[in-house]
Write a structure and sequence with these properties.
By secondary structure, the chain is mainly α. Helix content is about 60%, strand content about 5%.
Amino acid sequence: MQEKKTVGQAIASLVLGILSFLMFGFLTAIPAVICGHIAKSKIKSDPENLKGDGQALAGLIMGYITIGLTLLMIPLLAAIAIPSFQKARSLAMEKSCQNNQRIIESAKVEYAIEHNLSDGVRVSQDDIGVYISGGFPSIQCMEQGVYTINPIGTHPECSVHEFPNAYD
């Protein structure tokens, strides 16, 4: 009697299933499932000459478990990541607005020094526009706020973001 030959896809399914479970997750789980089904199909078609049904089954089980765990983890990771991204975006908008206010204040100071102006003197966008790269229209609040220049000696303000200690 001839010894049964082990189907290569059964061994591949087992190895890929183990790798998917321990390290590579989804990347090797799908090939583990595919190889497992191919191996089981070959063994079913010629059971007298082929073996490896247990190995194929083990690879299938580990592959399907890994796929299931991965599908469960995606929403959990999204639930953690999305609020963090929103917080980072909001903070970036605030910092951008704060930087714009500093640019406006710096332009006001330069204009005041150049024209020997004291605190309390009002300046316009046209007055300080030459001290801002791209002119005053290039300064935009990311949340559609409006900047108030304020007199010299008083910090500029944004209608959306308040920075009481923005210059400390």
